[in-house]
Amino acid sequence: MIEKLPSATEQQVNYVRIDEDKCNGCVLCMKVCPTKAIRVRDNHKAVIVGVCIDCGECVKVCPRGAVEPIINLTSDFEEAPYKVVSPSTAIYAQFGPDVMPNDVLLALKKMGFDYVHDQSYTSEMFNVAIELYVKENHEHGHSPWPLISPVCPVVVRLIRYRYPSLLKHLPPLATPREIVAREAKKRLSQKHGCSQDVIKVIHVTPCAAKMICIREPFFLERSYLDAAVGISSIHEEIIRNLKDLEEDTVLHHSGGIGLGWGMSGGEIAGLHMNCLAVSGLSETIKYLEQIEMGLLTDIEYVEFRMCTEGCIGGPLTVIDKYRAKHRLQTLVRLFGAERRVKYEYVKNLYDKGWFLAEREVEGFPSERSARDIKAEIRRRNQIEKILEHLPRKECGLCGSPDCETFAEDVVDGRSSLDKCVFLDAKGKEKGLQ
Amino acid sequence: MQSLTKTFRVQPRDFVKAGEASLKIQRLLKDIGFDPTLIRRVAVCAYESEMNVVMYGGEGKILLEVSAEKISVITDDDGPGIEDIEKALQEGYSTAPPEYREMGFGAGMGLPNIKKNADLFEIRSGKGDGTTLVMSFEVRQ
């Protein structure tokens, strides 16, 4: 019995919507949610009640397609005088073996964009920036080890929400997707002698969370990206456009390193240092917790990706992640497993602050922010007491994701003990004492 | 004084589950809302002492006691005990066999690290008597 229904604005903030007509109240999305933000109500419909980090796990797990990410072209974008498209590097894994990155970019342009900006080259530049920051950090010790990649928006959101003590492990650098959009706007406004405001950049993404990082760009005052669209929603059109490509401009400039960024290990493949690549929800959480405990300090940099196998495992992709991985590995071999960017050139930009984030990433204000430790200990005791009487079947039939969360919901007045189908009258009485 | 107590079991030589008790302690303290720096100090001590039980101890348990004024962690095992406590407290001193060192443990920093992080630290052990570590932390508000 969850009284508090999410309001319209809360639904919007999450960018994930549960379609009541399609939802049959099974427990799958609720169980998979890493922030335990979903509950199943008495009417057998799932609702989002807590902070969603937009990982897309619920989207992936729902067998009925009832959970949909809210991500679309905005009307404001359609009317813009200059339209720029900038795809995630995961897009290069979404087509057959004969389709080269440059073909994908040309086919995208044909969809009615004025410009296409590839991200793989900037990603290689970002690798250099990370190396420079790591070197600096060894000398000055700004950030604690290991540094955590700021690239995956879901990981950053997870850190902000659940592991705020790790915020200082994020290097203060803007992500490649934002740098690409920023530079595109800068260059085009100079070229056309227009204001940057009339140039709109859309991000083509495998990731359900990109919309949210456009609205809430954690490293910037305001995102340079204006809209996002899922790879899956324009995939067919790209394939159609690939058939008769007339233009043969070179739009893709990176080496294999930049192309490999879409898969787990792709970012650190370009780094010459002691690093790790971790992907997938449960592994990411495990490693974040280890870092929080002060472990892994011998590692310099950790690439985290919330989706298994990296961005190619994102919910808005078309090709299965393992096929996609093979595709990217082939491209990396073909283009050579090295960076094409010039170190000195990037260092010069780095020294000028080209990569610097505009502001520090902040933690989310906690749901129970004004903490009275005594009251919290009392609450925890009540929870432990109820837990003693619960069967620990972890079934989710009560509408809460697991027994512990159920006990919390009962104590917080969001559920009641009679929801537990295993607890007999005696147990209920004891638990309530 | 309202306090919360919880006991966690630790299995010797179980390297798959090693660290889980400390992780649960860390989660619990986080949920209550203690200062992150304090949580980290407690977690480091809980982890080091848990690993000691896993590597050298016998059947063990960690007792956590939490109040608004003080957090204490008591690790207790019925293993072979420590022969020379003074030596064990020296940085770099370790009796770890090579296979533990290969796993990245046994650098002889465990007990010194605990001593550094806990406000109060007491160790009771003797050959054949098992080991008890008492670590406590003041909650400053």
How would you explain this protein's 3D organization?
The complex is a heterodimer of chains A (433) and B (141). With 433 residues, chain A is an alpha/beta fold. Chain A has three domains: 1-70, Alpha-Beta Plaits (2-Layer Sandwich); 75-351, no CATH class; 373-433, Electron transport complex subunit B, putative Fe-S cluster (3-methyladenine DNA Glycosylase II, Chain A, domain 3), CATH 1.10.15. Chain A contains 17 helices and eleven strands. The two termini of chain A are 21 Å apart. Residues 1-12 of chain A have low confidence and may be disordered. Chain B has one domain (3-138): Histidine kinase-like ATPase, C-terminal domain (Heat Shock Protein 90). Chain B is 36% helix and 27% strand. In chain B, α1 (20-32) packs antiparallel against α2 (36-56) and α2 packs antiparallel against α5 (110-117). Chain B is globular and about 40 Å long.
Helix/strand layout:
The complex is a heterodimer of chains A (433) and B (141).
Chain A: H1 8-14, E1 16-18, H2 28-32, E2 38-40, E3 46-48, H3 57-61, E4 67-69, H4 75-78, E5 82-87, H5 101-109, E6 115-116, H6 120-140, E7 147-148, H7 153-162, H8 176-192, E8 199-205, H9 210-215, E9 227-230, H10 231-243, H11 256-259, E10 275-279, H12 281-292, E11 301-305, H13 321-335, H14 343-351, H15 373-389, H16 403-411, H17 425-432
Helix pairs in contact in A: 5-10, 6-8, 6-14, 15-16, 15-17
Chain B: E1 3-10, H1 20-32, H2 36-56, E2 60-67, E3 70-77, H3 85-88, H4 98-102, H5 110-117, E4 120-125, E5 131-138
Antiparallel strand pairs in B: 1-2, 2-3, 3-5, 4-5
